[in-house]
Structure formats: structure tokens, C-alpha cells
Design brief:
Distance between the termini: 35 Å
Number of domains: 3
Shape: elongated
Radius of gyration: 32 Å
Number of helices: 29
Structural class: alpha/beta
Helix content: 55-70%
Length: 756
């Protein structure tokens, strides 16, 4: 929007989200933990030099390294701090005035014999105003003194990070009598002098003294909470210290949710190859399109003057049309991936931190609920969990999850626990849907497996290449992929038990139940044996797929969190299909699922169970403890919802076409949100239109939904080409895909080696 360096924005502009969350203009600020701060500042020497306000900033800064530090000791003297474990030294030097003494200390650092600090934070003025009673002569002397210091600071800035902290405004009504001469008018005059003089001799140089002016903005909002009208409240000082940490450490630590002061990442070899591929696809499509247009003009229908008959244009060969469809799909995909890259890798668009309020989550929920109810239609069939109903279920769940992500509602534990149930419900549908297909159809062919795997993984594989992210980063796709393969293996392994075979002999039902019990035993064993689980997925090349940040812990955590729900989905499908086969349920239009007495009883139990789970989830105090119980109890609310939605015949006979539309592209919506609706890999919010949050959300949402829909169409088109029904052709394609992934592994290994 404005261009420029995000470091300048971080140091000079921003606003408060709520009371305590500071949002820099155009970029995201990372909240550093003690361990991260120590890793960044290892073997570093930091110096704070100035008055009591700088001393406060010094204490807030060292508390980021050691929260146990207490503000004690000589207030008008030097204060040392050292962390021997990380070889970090942070010193406060008491120089309350910009004078000859301060100049002499700064000059000593410019001389070759003395070790220079890596970071210097300086600032002073209020003492000069106080001691000299706010006289104009004191201001003139301040200008002379800072003029003599400026060249020394600029010289230090060539090898160290030098920050000059401008003076914060005061709350004049609270100032003591001895400080009444410190007015905001005087402070502005001193700040103006400092800004004008600093860097005056090095305006075109990259090595500059960084002016820390953002503290003024923070103080304007919070100084009225000051204890004495002069010194900032603790929360404001902590914000300033965190800004300092972000300015220096973001370029070193490269946190995902800290976009301020981070340089644009350089393109990897795989990204360059992807760029070349998409460019060639676009050029290829344009050439073929031009050739076809030219042929169309030549062969256009025209009347034969002699016979009076119409000559029909020549029909293109199927190979050309397949090639054109392939290039057309990759052409569109290339343009879409360019947008992805520009949104979340290039420093082109702004990014902001999330900030949760109850209204930002619940008002959009109510809004989409009203829309969903408004677009109600009759279903084509009235079976339990029919296609329209499952699409509707996926749709409203996906919309709720999207609102949850953009509003930052994960900080509110009751909402978090309910969202965990929605994710579990997706996996429940995975178990239910795939089990039902294999049980009824008995189709264990390679074509079916390849179709499912392609549709699930195509977009994620492309994003891994373009956005330079590991496969496990998009955790939900690996989760559903692995569970699909587990379902397939469970049912495909000998003896293959399907509905047709089981109808002839009831013993086959017990055989299937035995298979499901074996599956449950394996799940139980792996969930309580982290070592065995990690060994399985740490073997190469599986480790390339499931490692995140060098280990498979994240994958184990995600798998364990919903470990039983797919099994529950399979078991529910088995029981439901068995009841349906024996005509023990009524699925006619408008008919209750069971007899009136049974239906009413089950409906009452379901509503009570649903509300009981919600009450329990809302009373959660600790996320870790609730996550431990979640795998076992999430099925209660899922089954309760299914029964409430399906027992009454009139409810089962209608669906929301609004939610169903979103349900058909739910996977694409879930994946695309990472980079073109949210930002910084879901940690922040993409800002296309700065200054207008609601308008920005409307525009970015419209683009996001359109892109997700288009990618869904592209995936479906490519699935027909890449995964043909003919077995011999499919085998050739699989060999090509194996070659592609082998090349990808090779290039990935080369990248890793070059990085190390």
C-alpha cells in the first residue's frame, strides 16, 4: 500500500486492539517467550543509557529474559544484568541528561580498544526540563549536545543497532509540584530537535540511528493510568520492550507470526521450478488457444454456393482437447498460486494480529445461521445422512471453523472445545462415508483409492511446493489421508467382508466386528505408546511427510486428539446399514425414524446429551485436561446431533442449500484460508484494504471463496485426466507420479543440504 520497511512502521506507528494488545501498522508482532529471547540474544551485549524512563524500559526488557527479576537497587546509578547460561549482558547506565558525560561514554564505544555493545537504547530530556525549569536556554543547550552526540551514534549504527527513544507525553494533572514545568509542549520541542538532528549527516546511508517514536503513541493511550503522571504503566513498558525485541530478533528467529522486520524469503529451487512450470503452462495454453481460434476462423460454417449445403467445422482430436484442458487447468492454477505467494510470502500486502472479542465470533455465527435457515430446500432423498445433509453439515461446520480462525477464538476455551468437536465430526464423516462405500459397493480397486487420494492431496502438494511448507503443516489433509488408508486396509485385507457376502451368512457380521475390534486395539496401543508411533512415522520417506520442525510430535498430537472418532464413524455406519437392511428404521418422507415412543425417547436423550456436553465444555478450566477427555467424549455430541437432525421426518426431509454449497468446497476452504484469508500461515489476518477492517474482510472473503471454488473445479477436472479408469493407463500415470515424487524428494534433500 505504502511500501517501505516494516521496521519503520513497527517503530513509529500502530494502534491498540482492545486495552492491552498493540497492533503495529501493516505487520504482525511476535510475543517472545523467555527461551526464544535468550536464543536470539545469545552472546550479545545490550546497553540502555538514559534517565528513569529508560531504566523502566531496561527492566521490562530483562524480564523477557528472566521474569523473576525485581526492580530494586540504586535508582540513580548503573544497574548490571547477566544471564550466564546464554552469555547475555544487559546494562543500564544512568545518564539522565544529554551532556558531556553521556557523550564521553558513547565516544568510548567508538574507539577500537573497547568492545561495542550489539544493541544501544538511549534517550533523555525530562531531567533537562526539570533541572533548568523548562528554560529556552536548556533547550538550546540540548540541541548543541545532541548535535555533538549524533555523529558518534551514527558511527556506532554501522556495526550495532542503535535506538533513540523519543520522550513520551506526560499526564500534566498528575505531576507533582517539582515536575510541573515538564509540559507536553516542552517535550514536543525536545523530540522535534532530536528527530531533526539525528541522522542529518547520513540521510542516504543504510546505517542509521533508529528513532523509537512508537512509545509516544502508546503513552498517549495509557499515560492517564500512570502512578505519577511521568512514568508509563507496566503494561505499556512491556509493550515497548516487546517491540524492541521484535525489531532486533525477528530477522534472526524468523517467527511465523512475526512479520515485522522480516525480509522476504528467497525462492527455493523447488519454487523456481514450479514458477517455470506454471509459466510454461500459461504460454502453452495461450499458444494452443491461438491455434484453435485460428483454425475455427478458417473452418467456420459457411454455405457452399454450388450445393447450398452447410459445411461443418472439423472436430478436434480428443488428445488435443485433453491437452488443452490440462494446460487450461494449470494456467488457472498458476495464476491462483501467484496470488497465494503474493499474499503470504511476498511483502506486498499487510498482515495484522488477531484479536478476540465475543462479538467478533458470535455475531457472524448468528448472521450465517440466519442465511442458512433462509435458504432451505427439500432433499432429493430422506435417508439418514443423505448427500445433501452431509454437504450441509460440512458447510456450516466449515463456516464456523473459518469464523473461529479469523476471530482468534482459540483463546476462549469453551469455543475451542466446541470447535474440536466440529473437527472430530469431519473425521467421523470420513469413517462413516468410506466405510459405507466399501461395505455397500465392495469396490477395493486401485482407481477408487487413487481418486480419493488425488482429490484429498492435490491442492496441499501444490501448496507445499509453492509456499515452501512441509506436508504436515496442513495437518487435516494428512489426517484424513491416513485414516482413509486405515479404513481401506481394515476392509480390504483378507477376508474381504462386504454387505453382499454378509447377507448370505450372518457370521460374516461377527467377522467384520472382529476386524473393527482389532483396529480399536491398534489405535489404543499407539495412543499410549508415543515411542512406537514416532518410530513408525520417523522412517524415511514417511518422515518427510509427517515431520514438522524436525520431529513428528505435532503429528502424534493431532492424531491422538481424535483417535477414536473415525472408528466411531465406521461403527455407526455398520449399525445403521444393518438396521436399514433389516427395515428396523423408517426413512420415508415425513416419517419419524422409529416408532413415536422410541423416537421421542431418543430425541429427549439426544438433546440432554448435547446440552450436557456443551455445559461440560463450557466449564473447562484447563485445555490439556479437556483434550485428554475429548477423544472419548466427543462422539456423544456428534451422535446427539445426528439423531436430533434425523429422527424427526420433517427435519430429515429439508436441508440448507446455502450450507450445502459451502460443504462441497469445504476441503478447499479449509486449506486456502491458511494463506489468502488469514496470513502468516493462519497466525494473522490478511489486509488487502488498510484502515477499513469490515470492508477488508468482505473483499478478502469474496476472493477467498471464489478461489476455493475455482480450485475445487480444477481438482475435479485434473482428477479425470490424471486418474483414468483404464488400468493400464492408470499404471503408467502412477509410475509418472512416483517419478515426480522421487524428484521432489531429491530436490528437497538438495535444499536441506544447502540450508545446513
Amino acid at each position: 500500500f505504502k511500501g517501505g520497511d516494516t521496521c519503520e512502521y513497527l517503530l513509529s506507528s500502530g494502534r491498540f486492539l482492545g486495552e492491552k494488545v498493540w497492533q503495529p501498522h501493516s505487520c504482525m508482532m511476535h510475543k517472545y517467550k523467555n527461551s526464544e529471547a535468550k536464543n536470539c540474544l545469545i552472546d550479545k551485549h545490550v546497553v540502555f543509557i538514559g534517565d528513569s524512563r529508560i531504566r523502566q524500559l531496561f527492566y521490562s526488557f530483562i524480564k523477557l529474559l528472566n521474569p523473576q527479576v525485581k526492580e530494586e537497587g540504586n535508582k540513580h546509578g548503573n544497574i548490571p544484568f547477566e544471564d550466564k547460561s546464554a552469555s547475555i549482558k544487559v546494562d543500564f547506565l544512568w545518564y539522565p541528561e544529554v551532556n558531556g558525560s553521556m557523550r564521553q561514554r558513547i565516544k568510548s564505544w567508538t574507539e577500537g580498544s573497547v568492545a561495542k555493545p550489539h544493541i544501544i537504547v538511549a534517550g533523555a530530556a525530562t531531567w533537562s526540563i526539570k533541572i533548568h525549569n523548562g528554560s529556552n536556554e536548556a533547550l538550546a543547550q540540548y540541541k548543541i549536545n545532541i548535535t555533538s552526540i549524533a555523529p558518534l551514534l551514527e558511527k556506532l549504527a554501522k556495526s550495532s543497532d542503535v535506538y533513540w527513544v523519543l520522550q513520551d507525553p506526560v499526564y500534566e494533572d498528575m505531576l507533582s509540584e517539582s515536575r510541573k514545568m515538564i509540559t507536553n509542549e516542552k517535550i514536543d520541542a525536545y523530540n522535534e530537535a532530536a528527530v531533526r538532528i539525528l541522522n542529518s549527516s547520513s540521510r542516504n546511508s543504510k546505517a542509521k540511528v533508529k528513532v523509537f517514536s512508537v512509545s509516544k503513541l502508546i503513552a498517549q493511550e495509557t499515560i492517564m493510568k500512570s502512578a505519577d503522571g511521568l512514568h508509563l504503566p507496566e503494561s505499556s513498558r512491556d509493550t515497548n520492550a516487546m517491540i524492541l525485541m521484535n525489531v532486533y530478533c525477528n530477522k534472526i528467529m524468523k517467527p511465523i507470526d512475526g512479520s515485522c522486520c522480516q525480509p522476504q524469503p528467497s525462492l527455493t529451487l523447488i519454487q523456481k521450478l514450479a514458477f517455470c512450470f506454471f509459466t510454461l503452462s500459461i504460454i502453452g495454453y495461450l499458444i494452443i488457444n491461438l491455434i484453435h481460434r485460428n483454425n475455427f476462423r478458417k473452418n467456420k460454417s459457411c454455405t457452399d454456393l454450388e450445393s447450398g449445403e452447410e459445411k461443418k467445422p472439423a472436430i478436434g482430436t480428443p488428445n488435443v482437447s485433453t491437452l488443452e484442458m490440462l494446460l487450461h487447468s494449470f494456467c488457472k492454477l498458476g495464476l491462483i498460486m501467484t496470488y497465494f505467494y503474493l499474499c503470504d510470502r511476498a511483502n506486498l500486502f499487510m498482515k495484522e494480529n488477531k484479536f478476540y472479542t465475543h462479538s467478533s465470533f458470535f455475531i457472524p455465527i448468528i448472521y450465517i445461521l440466519v442465511l442458512g435457515v433462509f435458504y432451505t430446500e427439500n432433499t432429493k432423498e430422506t435417508k439418514v445422512l443423505n448427500r445433501e445433509q452431509t454437504d450441509e453439515w460440512k458447510g456450516w461446520m466449515q463456516l464456523v471453523i473459518l469464523i473461529y480462525h479469523i476471530s482468534g477464538a482459540s483463546t476462549f476455551l469453551p469455543v475451542y472445545m466446541h470447535i474440536r468437536v466440529l473437527v472430530a465430526a469431519y473425521l467421523f464423516q470420513t469413517g462413516y462415508g468410506h466405510f459405507s462405500y466399501f461395505w455397500i459397493k465392495g469396490d477395493f480397486g486401485v482407481y477408487r483409492v487413487c481418486q480419493v487420494l488425488f482429490r484429498l492431496n492435490f491442492l496441499v502438494v501444490v501448496l507445499c511446493i509453492v509456499m515452501d511448507r512441509p506436508y504436515q503443516f496442513y495437518y487435516f489433509v494428512p489426517l484424513v489421508t491416513v485414516w482413509f488408508m486405515i479404513i481401506y486396509a481394515t476392509l480390504a485385507i483378507w477376508p474381504q467382508i462386504v454387505q453382499k457376502k454378509a447377507n448370505g451368512n450372518c457370521l460374516w457380521h461377527f467377522g467384520l466386528l472382529l476386524k473393527l475390534i482389532c483396529l480399536l486395539t491398534c489405535i489404543y496401543f499407539l495412543s499410549y505408546s508415543q515411542g512406537a508411533f514416532e518410530k513408525i512415522f520417523s522412517f524415511w520417506p514417511l518422515s518427510k511427510c509427517f515431520e514438522l520442525n524436525g520431529n513428528v510430535y505435532e503429528w502424534w498430537f493431532r492424531w491422538k486428539l481424535d483417535r477414536y472418532v473415525v472408528f466411531h464413524g465406521m461403527l455407526f455406519a455398520f449399525i445403521y446399514l444393518a438396521l436399514q437392511k433389516r427395515q428396523m428404521i423408517s426413512e420415508g418422507k415425513g416419517d419419524p425414524l422409529f416408532s413415536n415412543r422410541v423416537s421421542n425417547g431418543l430425541l429427549f436423550i439426544s438433546i440432554v446429551s448435547f446440552l450436557t456436553y456443551s455445559i461440560w465444555a463450557s466449564s473447562c478450566k484447563n485445555k490439556t485436561e479437556c483434550n485428554e477427555l475429548h477423544p472419548s467424549v466427543s462422539v456423544v455430541q456428534i451422535l446427539a446431533f445426528i439423531l436430533i437432525r434425523n429422527i424427526p421426518g420433517y427435519v430429515r426431509s429439508v436441508y440448507s442449500s446455502f450450507f450445502a454449497w459451502f460443504g462441497k468446497i469445504s476441503l478447499e476452504l479449509f486449506i486456502c484460508q491458511y494463506h489468502i484469508w488469514l496470513a502468516a500461515d493462519t497466525k494473522g489476518i490478511l489486509v488487502l484494504i488498510p484502515g477499513y477492517p469490515m470492508f477488508n474482510v468482505l473483499v478478502s472473503t469474496f476472493i477467498f471463496v471464489c478461489v476455493a471454488h475455482e480450485i475445487s473445479q480444477i481438482t475435479n477436472d485434473l482428477a479425470q485426466i490424471v486418474v483414468p479408469k483404464d488400468n493400464s493407463t492408470l499404471l503408467k500415470r502412477l509410475l509418472c507420479i512416483a517419478g515426480f515424487f522421487s524428484g521432489l524428494l531429491l530436490f528437497s534433500a538438495m535444499q536441506d543440504q544447502s540450508r545446513h
